[in-house]
Write a structure and sequence with these properties.
globular, mainly alpha, about 0% strand
Length: about 200
């Protein structure tokens, strides 16, 4: 790894840290002014563009939570990080990404996209699939256990794909409804004036 790519990784971590502090400041200020629990959701749902912004957040939370859960070595750690990300938002997500980059020796690609930290369950499914393919290529009989793990992994990821497609379709429908029924400028004005 070059010094330049390590410097880039360090810069990204600093940028994420500064962004997290800023987001936490804005979040704390918003919490002090606007309650999320006393009629806020009803108020958000009364405006089409605010509803679209909420749908955008929910869609993003579904995708990032799934990424985090599958990325962690432990299901418990993955679920805890995902819940913190959903309930506390971008500051936690930026902290999570910073930790992954730092643990990957400041390599952004390996830290965020590589298999380092990929759940052992999914890594073993992939490894067993490679062993199975190697055995087949050498004419050895295939193992039923490997096929079972492969099938479970395939079914799980097809279910994840289905959830992603449903979330995307719902998000698109909410956005199309906002476009169809309310002027964009009116929606932007409402969203920027509302604390959430």
């Amino acid at each position: 790894m070059t010094a330049r790519s390590k410097l880039l990784g360090a810069c990204v971590i600093v940028l994420f840290a500064v962004s997290s502090v800023y987001f936490l400041f804005v979040l704390a200020r918003t919490w002090s002014k606007v309650s999320l629990f006393h009629g806020a959701f009803a108020e958000i749902l009364s405006n089409k563009w605010a509803t679209a912004a909420l749908a955008d957040y929910v869609a993003g939370a579904v995708f990032t939570s799934t990424y985090i859960v599958l990325r962690e070595d432990s299901w418990i750690h993955g679920i805890l990080w995902a819940c913190c990300s959903v309930f506390l938002g971008n500051p936690v997500l930026l902290l999570y990404a910073s930790i992954k980059i730092a643990r990957a020796d400041l390599n952004i690609e390996r830290g965020l996209l590589g298999t380092q930290g990929l759940s052992e369950t999914w890594r073993s499914v992939s490894t067993e699939r490679l062993v199975e393919l190697e055995a087949r290529s050498q004419g050895e009989p295939s193992s039923a256990e490997g096929q079972s793990d492969e099938k479970r992994g395939w079914v799980f990821f097809r279910l994840v794909d289905l959830v992603f497609v449903v979330v995307l379709v719902v998000y698109m429908l909410v956005c199309l409804d906002a476009i169809r029924t309310q002027a964009f400028q009116e929606g932007v004005r409402y969203v920027t004036m509302h604390g959430w």
